[in-house]
Amino acid sequence: MSDALDIALRLIAVFVAFLVFPLVIGQTEHKVMAHMQGRLGPMYAGGFHGWAQLVADGVKFAQKEDIVPAGADRRIFQLAPAVALLPYLLVLVAIPIGPHNAVGQNLDAGIFFVLAVMGVGVLGSLMAGWASANKFSLLGGLRTAAQLLAYELPMLLAAASVAMAAGTLSLPGIVEAFHWWWVPWQIVGGVVFFTAGLAELQRPPFDMPVADSEIIFGAYTEYTGLRFALFLLAEYAGIVVLCALTSVLFLGGWHGPFGADGLGWLWTLLKTAILAFGVIWLRVTYPRLREDQLQKLAWTVLIPLALAQIALTGVIKVVIS
Predict the structure, then answer these.
(1) Mind listing the pLDDT tens digit for each residue in 104-120?
(2) pLDDT at 103 over 90
(3) pTM score, two decimals?
(4) Which of 93, 96, 140, 175 has the smallest number of CB atoms closer than 10 Å to its CB?
(5) Nearest Cα to 121, choosing from 149, 88, 95, 89?
(6) What is the pLDDT of residues 38-52, one digit of tens each?
């Protein structure tokens, strides 16, 4: 009975985090962009610092009519938002937040699990583009597929480098094996991993598949109301997962200058929050890449850097041993 209760409590904690953290990221993006761009609207909703903006957005989406195009593949069209969102809930189960088994489920091959499941989330965009019976949506889905193929490889190679350094595929094991002197020689892999993750989430400046000014929000053109909101929620959930994974793999997770045991979870959340702020900052700062620039960055820059990082990791491991 105690084991069942422990599992239930862990699953509830993961589910609550899944419901809360993406909404916090969404609210923060409203405020950060409002400050950086001088946008006064999001700062007034509800009074103090626009606290009710997120509530207003939720009410707006709930009130919109749920429309399914007449020529659409109805079942696939309706399932696509769930396919885009739910993989991030599964990934959160395997990400450790602190020491002493503070993780939903410690998997021996956790790094393989999280990367494989994150790749499934992109299928939601492909399903939406294919099922919408709209040429703009289909074009957005095809761009999503091309972007996934280009950026999945450097992301996997960068993660393989840190797994080699730690000598384990377990995410808690990688954090436990972490040393601060890893940061200088794993930083290239961290940048590659983070950049490739942004591209897989289709976040600016890698948002060609959802280019609102060119192909009318890509694969999601025909979506309205709560179904469209689920795609936006999947994006914010993906930001949480990407930033948490980057902090666990490349920044030491719960390790900090002090309080690694008692405050380890706080260090993990702090590193995740700083990286999430960086994601928002990139959206405000950089223009959208062209499709050829996007592909060139992946194949001629990120993949060679990831391969060089693996080679460096192998050399250092041999020297240390």
Answers:
(1) 888 888 899 999 998 88
(2) no
(3) 0.91
(4) 93
(5) 88
(6) 777 777 777 777 777
How is the chain split into domains, by residue range?
Answer: 69-320
Distances, alpha carbon 193 to alpha carbons 132, 153, 182, 199, in Å? 32, 10, 15, 10
